[in-house]
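QUALITY CONTROL LOG
STEP: pairwise intake check
CHECKER ROLE: data steward
CRITERIA: each record must contain a sequence immediately followed by its structure tokens, with no blank fields

ENTRY 1 OF 2
RESULT FIELD BELOW
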Amino acid sequence: MDVVDSIRRQLNSGKAKDRKEGLKQLDLQLDSPQFLHQLDTNTAKLWPQDRLTFGTWPGLLDMFLGFLQREVLEAGRQLDAAGNKVLRRIFMEADDAGRCGPGSCNLLRRAGVAFDKLQKVLEASEPPGEGLGTPVGRELVAVLSKVLLPNAQYCQRSTVATFQGLIEEVMCRCESLQQRIAAADDEAARRSSAATAAGRLAGQGAAAGAFGRGKEALAAEAELHGMAGLLAGLLGGVPGQLVPQFVADTASFLVEQLKWLGQQRRYGRLDVQLLASLNGLLLAYGQELRPHMATLHSPLQQYMKQAWGERNVRFKEALLCYCRLAVTLGGLQPRAQTELLTLVSRDISAEGLTWDLQGNKLQQQLAALAATLYYQQAFTAAAASSSRTRHTLSSTGAAGAAAAAGAASGG
């Protein structure tokens, strides 16, 4: 396709004006149904052994990823608004469900390279995690969340090391956002205290404390929700087994995030996302995490007790699932297990509780947790009884042997 060759020459130019014009032309072409149809047709004709051409979707992506590497990784420049828009549109248009149907994989030949390049672009920013907050970083989050991660075939073309790098970037960004939100809360409390000290009306002081965060902190909280969703997608799409130590570090990070949320006593969608990620790790890497379970659960015992009465169904389901996994993997000390059993028994015997004939999901989780707890309690009691019996038999046997030896000596 001659138009693609012309755009490629412009993007490879050493002049900023030519590169800007190339981005403009590519954006215009992506508006053309004929251009998109030609890319679809050329891509459909590709055999696995065929060399990629720029007139196909993977070839077009390859061309733009090369431009991205030269601009960001080599020259240290940031993409402008036009570049960010084209980056997003290439990924979105390539697998547009309305045009190509569901489950299309037009970028499969370059999916692994795409994951690798996106991770390197994010890593190029300092400190770690800050790349996700840049304009190009926000576009990459959209590409990962909406195009690459939902497609299992794309994920399989990447590597575990690349996913670990992306997960580290997301965790660093979450910690940075958490610090910004905490600083905003402290500032709001300071302003509320100052307003009270100045003799303002109580209602005005309360308003200052309630709305003192400002747009920046609210934006940080909204972004934190997006990062939690991206983290869940990355953990669910890893093309292989994560390194055990990395798994333990990720689980510790999730626990710390939940502990921080528990201190604010606000249990919502963010908690559900983080609990779902933690539950996924426990299900996939339970044996690797078993030695760490007591340490992991200790900060969450108070969180669990505080949040137990929440009525958010999805949150309660995720919390019950976590509790069952923690009990199964031996994360609860006897006292903590007794506290949990008390909470479960109270829910099961609550007045007005009507059990469905087949049980809804929440009731199924509650019944499964109760069964796990009662089994653990019975198993522990049986083991203790068996130990006492062995000790008694051993003592009796020793006494009998001593008596027989004494008799023989006296005889």
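ENTRY 2 OF 2
RESULT FIELD BELOW
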Amino acid sequence: MDCFDPNDDHPFAKVLYTDDGYVTSLYDALTEDGILVAQVGEASEIDDPADENGDFENRSTMIKMLDEIGFK
């Protein structure tokens, strides 16, 4: 998946990375041995705030959702 960075200031970026229906469809589309590769923005620096509190809130939300859905 490579559409937008999760921290892009674009309404569609938020939908891609935080919509439960969309994220669930990614999981459902894969076979048992399937692999999801996703662009999740630039790497954090040591002095950056936690993703949940900074510019990468969408990335944090997506990672939590993927875990809850069943990605390992």
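INTAKE CHECK: passed for both entries
DESCRIPTIVE NOTE, ENTRY 2: The CA atoms of residues 34 and 50 lie 29 Å apart.
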